[in-house]
Amino acid sequence: MAANAIDQTRRMLSLVTYLRERPGARIADVARAFGISEDELISDLDVLPLCGTSFRGGDLLDIDTDGERIWWHNPAALSAEAAAPLRLAADEATALLVAARAVATLPGLREGDREALLRATAKLEAAAGETAGASDRLSVTFESEGGVFAEVDRAISERRRLWVRYYSPARDELTEREVDPIRLFALGHTYMEAWCYRSEARRTFRLDRVAEIRILDEPAAPPELELRDLSEALVQPSADDPEVVVEVGPGGRWVAEYYPHDSAEELPDGGLRITLRTPDPASLRRLALRLGPDGRITAPEDLARSARSAAVEALAAYEASGGQGA
Amino acid sequence: MAIAKAERLMNLALCLLGTRRPLSKRELRGSIEAYLEAGSDDSFNRMFERDKDDLRELGLVIETVENLDGDVGYLARRDSNRLPAVTLDAEEAAALGLAAKVWQQARLAGAASGALQKLRAAGLPEEVDPYEPHSALEPRIPVHEAAFEPLMLACRDRRPVVFDYRKANAARPEARHVEPWALECWRGHWYLAGWDRDRGAERLFRLSRITGKVRSRAGKFTAEVPDVVTVRETVASWAGEIADRSAKLKLRAGAGYPLRAKATAVRELGDGWDELEIPYGHGMDAWLVEFGPDVVVLEPAELRADVVDRLRAVAKG
Q1: Smallest Cα distance from B196 to chain A, Å
Q2: Which long-range contacts (CB under 8 A, 24 or more apart) does A172-181 make?
Q3: Which residues of A touch B193 (CB under 8 A)?
Q4: d(Cα A90, Cα B273) in Å, to the nearest integer?
Q5: Which of A68, B169, B171, B269 matches a 20 to 30 Å C-alpha distance to B299?
Q6: The whole model's pTM is what?
Q7: pLDDT tens track of chain A, all 326 residues?
Q8: Do the bridges between strand B174-186 and strand A138-141 make them parallel or antiparallel, or are there none, so unpaired?
Q9: Are residues B100 and B178 in the same domain?
Q10: In what residue span(s) does the PafC HTH domain sit (chain A) (predicted)?
Q11: Where are the beta strands (DSSP E) in B48-132?
């Protein structure tokens, strides 16, 4: 599949260099070395014999495969010099350097890993030369609770169960759970994916909401699970979830940036009518309270009512503690 | 059937890399089948120019040389296109393998894989498979904002841009003319720092508030680019991360763990309530209202008044 001609060209140029040095390379090994599927590699091998320094006079690359190994019958069609490894493009250097620097800043990362990242970054900067110059115009910070991160990382590598006290903002409560950690991932915030024995299900825990953590003696034994696809939004409301409608003024437009929603309709005052779904509408009472003068929940009615009565109750507490101020 | 673009680009790259003397456009057209099939001179010329730009994006340095007769020739010299020797050990290779997977943006994900493949071709160690998950850690850089790619290129090439931007509290977007300096991602959101030409000052923009297209403007930057561009510190202060004041609160026992985690002192009042001292910054009032009747601000009076105002707005419905 030639999804993107630019990426495929880039890959084929590296393949030519790689294959010239390795007669009879195995399809499986090459695909793995290049981080592509065997089908992608074979589609590259279909194109390469149509390429050369000229399509006349037998200058085309005579590269073929028996389905297992790759053979290049006329390596002289391209001089060793012309097939030398190519310098990094600005975007290539930037993409790798910015990512490596970002990962190296993760609090809680193992020292050995951090050092390897920093050494690799320095070598890459040297190899890229001035091409690396634009890489400081992009930067990414990963945040994590260093201590919690390091404990989860250790539990995963030692395959041990964890005990955590975990904060749930929707209910404003702390719960104690035993979990078998599966992996750590960072996506804006840092998370642990784990099998949770309290809910008998796979759960994702945000590390900055872990109030306490302890590694237990029991070995971790999470059931075989399909890991979540990190390219998709973490919150995936289902079509059966109840619908909530939030109307916000211009000052509440941020809601559309933070909450996955079905629709956001522009209102004449510069505000939005946002329709979203959630399995637990009561968890949005916090949002209704937070919005204050910048918006309100219009449906469902019992959620709107619960926010209003929470505010009335809170105002009564202010009254009782010496007036409501200005 | 038209010849695939990747095949055409590959042929042009090999011709330019394989030659020791500059090749004229006519020679290149005679050597590359796709160009022969291009039809008119015009369509060939357009295709050729685009292809050269694409190869340059891939890092190829293509020189344009004029000979004595005034004919233009092209070549990609070996010495300016070769990767300098780089020796990475197995641990460093694994570290870069991890880094190559973090971008969730198509262009940079492709560029990162491409970089790793170039290093692979140059002999990056293969004992460890760099594409295997490294320990069990998977960092990802999310990019949801459509404005990211054009702004990334504009920062790279130092090109002024114009875009429509809606400020947090504004009802309507407004055109902003900006010299873009740097992009930074914090807590999953992207921000642009740059010189705002209309305001004659440095400004920070949140990419999700850019509406419509980012358009390039001709000409160069007019303001000097500072050596160090700070984004995160400014955004953190907006987010109330920088605490410069202190409040005294009453909090219901067992409630409000995040408030307790930030508190400098907690005292049990005994009647089911605790008293907290907590440092705070911008946006504290909105946050406290989230806890509804479980929190009461005692001091300072301004914060107490702000929270009460917000509660009244909610109570009104």
Answers
A1: 17
A2: A172/A286, A172/B255, A172/B256, A172/B257, A172/B291, A172/B294, A173/B254, A173/B257, A174/A211, A174/B257, A178/A216, A179/A203, A179/A205, A180/A220, A180/A221, A180/A222, A181/A152, A181/A155, A181/A156, A181/A220, A181/A222, A181/B136
A3: none
A4: 59
A5: B169
A6: 0.86
A7: 345 899 999 999 999 999 999 999 999 999 999 999 999 999 999 999 999 988 776 789 999 999 899 999 998 888 888 889 999 999 999 999 999 999 998 888 888 889 999 999 999 999 998 888 889 999 998 877 788 999 999 999 899 999 999 999 888 999 999 999 999 998 888 999 999 999 999 999 999 999 999 999 999 998 888 777 877 777 777 778 889 999 999 889 889 888 888 999 999 988 999 999 988 888 889 999 999 999 999 988 999 999 999 999 999 999 888 754 44
A8: parallel
A9: no
A10: 8-126
A11: 63-66, 72-75
| Closest approach of B262 to chain A, Cα-based (Å) | 12
Angle (nearest 5°) at CA A38 between A53 and B133: 115
Domain A146-219: CATH superfamily is Calcium binding protein CcbP, beta-barrel domain (2.30.30.530)
Q: Which residues contact A319 (CB under 8 A, 6 or more apart)?
A: none
Contact B309 A293 (CB under 8 A): yes
Q: Are B197 and B179 in contact, with CB atoms under 8 Å apart? A: yes
DSSP B50-63: HHHHHHHHTT---E
Give the whole-angstrom CA distance, residue A181 versus residue A196.
9
Contact A90, A134 (CB under 8 A): yes
Distance CA A10, CA B113 (A): 10
**Are A172 and B255 inside 8 Å of each other by CB?**
yes
Residues sharing a CB contact under 8 Å with residue B125, sequence separation 6 or more, in sequence order: B88, B89, B90, B93
Among residues A203, A212, A208, which one has the least CA distance to residue A180?
Answer: A203
Distances (CA, A) of A48 to A4, A252, B80, B111: 16, 55, 24, 21
Which residue carries 């090999």 as its tokens? B14
How many distinct structural domains can be found in chain B? 4
Report the run of H or E that residue B212 belongs to, with start and end.
strand B210-216
Cα-flanking dihedrals φ and ψ of residue B248, to 5°? -115, 125
Residues B63 and B107 in one domain: no
Retrieve residue B140's tokens: 């990802």
Residues B305 and B261 in one domain: yes
Among B103, B131, B142, beta carbon nearest to A188:
B142
DSSP tag of B147: T
| Strand partners of residue B192 | B183, B205
8 Å CB contact of B114 and A153: no
**Which amino acid type is present at position B295?**
V
DSSP string, B164-185: EE--TT-SS-EEEEEEEEEEEE
Closest chain A C-alpha to B103 CA, distance in angstroms: 7
Please answer whether residues B99 and B133 qualify as being in contact, where contact means their C-beta atoms are separated by less than 8 angstroms.
no
Tokens 């004919």 sit on residue: B71
- Domains of chain A, residue spans: 5-77, 90-137, 146-219, 243-320
Of the partner residues B110, B188, B296, the one whose CB lies closest to the CB of residue A4: B110
